[in-house]
Design a protein that fits this description.
Layout: E1 8-9, E2 20-23, E3 33-40, E4 54-63, E5 70-76, E6 97-103, E7 108-116, E8 120-128
Parallel strand pairs: 1-8
Antiparallel strand pairs: 2-3, 3-6, 4-5, 4-7, 7-8
The structure holds fe (ii) ion.
C-alpha cells in the first residue's frame, strides 16, 4: 500500500526550489494572531509557466502534544499564463506565496506543503512558540 506520507519530499528550501519556506513571527500580535508566510521558490525561483508551476500550498497547525492537525489554509494558484490563445500567452501568473493568520494560545508546529504539477508534493515545518 502506498501512503500519502510516502509521497512527500523534503529538503532545505535554500537549495531546493520546491520546498515551501515558512516565516513565523517570534511572538503573537496584540490581537493574539500569528501571521504565517509560506513561499515556494524564495531562494531559487521555481518555474511559473503553463507547463510547469506550483498549483497550491496548504498550511496546517499541529498544537504541541496533540494528535490531529488543523488545516489553516489552502491557497490555489490557478493563473499560469494560459489563455484562449494557448499556453503562456496571457502574461498573467499567480505567484506561489500564501499569507495566513491563525489565532492560538497554544505552541505547536506549522506544516506547509506545496504541489508542483510535475514534481509532486513537497513539505516543510516550523515550530511556533508562544512567548
Ligand atoms: Fe517543479
Amino acid at each position: 500500500m502506498t501512503l500519502m506520507k510516502d509521497l512527500f519530499q523534503n529538503a532545505d528550501w535554500k537549495t531546493e526550489k520546491h520546498v515551501p519556506a515558512i516565516d513565523l513571527p517570534l511572538q503573537a500580535s496584540k490581537d493574539g494572531t500569528f501571521e504565517i508566510i509560506v513561499t515556494v521558490g524564495r531562494q531559487i525561483p521555481h518555474p511559473n509557466t503553463s507547463a510547469h508551476h506550483i498549483a497550491y500550498i496548504e498550511v496546517y497547525f499541529l498544537p504541541q502534544g496533540e494528535k490531529f492537525p488543523y488545516q489553516a489554509a489552502r491557497c490555489e494558484f490557478p493563473a499560469h499564463g494560459a489563455s484562449t490563445q494557448g499556453a503562456d500567452t496571457s502574461g498573467v501568473y499567480s505567484l506561489p506565496e500564501a499569507r495566513v493568520k491563525i489565532k492560538t494560545e497554544k505552541p505547536g508546529t506549522v506544516v506547509a506543503c506545496a504541489y508542483c504539477n510535475i514534481h509532486g508534493l513537497w513539505e516543510n515545518s516550523a515550530v511556533l512558540t508562544i512567548g
